[in-house]
Task: structure prediction
Amino acid sequence: MNRRQLLHNLGLSGLALPFLEALSPTQAYAQNPQIKRVLFVVHRHGTIPIRWAIGESSEYLLSELLQPLSNFRTNIVQLLGVHNPLPYLYPSPHIHGLAETTLLTANLPRKQLIYGRFLNKGPSIDQVIAKELSSGCPFPSINLSIGSDEGTAITNTHFLYDDAGNPVSSIANPVLAYQQLYGSSSFSSSRQQTQLDAIREQNTFLSGVLSSEDRVRLAQYQERLFELEQTILGGACSLAQPSQQNYIHNDDTIAEQQIQLLTEAFSCDYTRVGSLIFDHLEETDMSWAHDENTPLYDRASYRTWEDFIHYGNTNDDPDLFQGYLWYSKKVRSLLEALSSQTDIDGHNLLDSTAVIWLSNFENGAQHSLENLPIAIFGASSSAIGQLLDYRANPYSLCDVWLSLLQAIGSQQQSFGHAHPQARMDIIPDLF
Result:
């Protein structure tokens, strides 16, 4: 019997059973038991490549754009040489939509909708992982956005897709997200108590078929389980309701509220998979990205933030730099929130969460799909303060997501669309 499958059946895949010989797996996978949760952070329009990573150095150095993350310098891995070649295979000029729909699915669209929006052939990686990790949780995944490209409280972000390839909604309004998460104040404790009772029943069954040595291990485990139960039932999963905000043009405040909601949901085990997508309207002036409460760019010359990225910037433009630096500051807030929240095992949430931050382009102005900006934090095996440079022998997004699936114990051998000029391979020791 597979240990992870047993935990799934019991609804507590985040709780480790003692290693019993009778449950020893018959086939080994590149599994990282530290990964209890996975969180995807996505922003549009790439980065400033020459200010994103510092290569060819004997030690890992934070680039200018990642300086806000200095406190997490030893818990990060940056990737160079990960490509997304799929948009070039689809006969559509809407490169933005293609870059978005393929980013987390690593698959081709099956149908084009209006204005470059697509239906996909397969699910996004977050939805696949949710089935592996979130069994027994109230929510398979929690998907929050910062801003709303559609101008609505619940929006389709064009990055997330279900098994049928249909868009998965994301909540842009923190008040609405709060109401969905905390609709029942007694839900969490009663659910956890039911799961713990189920494990006791399973332990009673196992004790009759185990060796004396394994029965000792099981008894020790039940003692730890009792201590855990007291911790869970003695605490409360509650959070003050966010204040009503304009969730479309107030991204800095909304980001902090969404980060708090998502972190608390992880802590309460409402889900083990989440996404946080910077989905603000292109018409935003990005005024929150610098100290002055004025538009980040000249609104008389550039109608949108996207226009400024495409037509007004150079690599040394200080306003462009401040805009991209803001994303790093919000990722810092997220990592701080995770590292300050205690998991039920006594460690902080960041230690047991793989946080993957990426964008759909390398350079938004050039629509480049090679060498995407990707940074991974937390429970990843390689997140030790290093830059992994694969440019000499590039990988694709299929390889990154397949490596993640293997790390959480999935038996899938492929993910997404096998590009004729890209490999479908595990990236060694990435997760």
Q: What stands out?
A: Residues 1-16, 24-28, 185-194, 230-235 have pLDDT under 50 and may be disordered. The two ends are 24 Å apart (CA to CA).
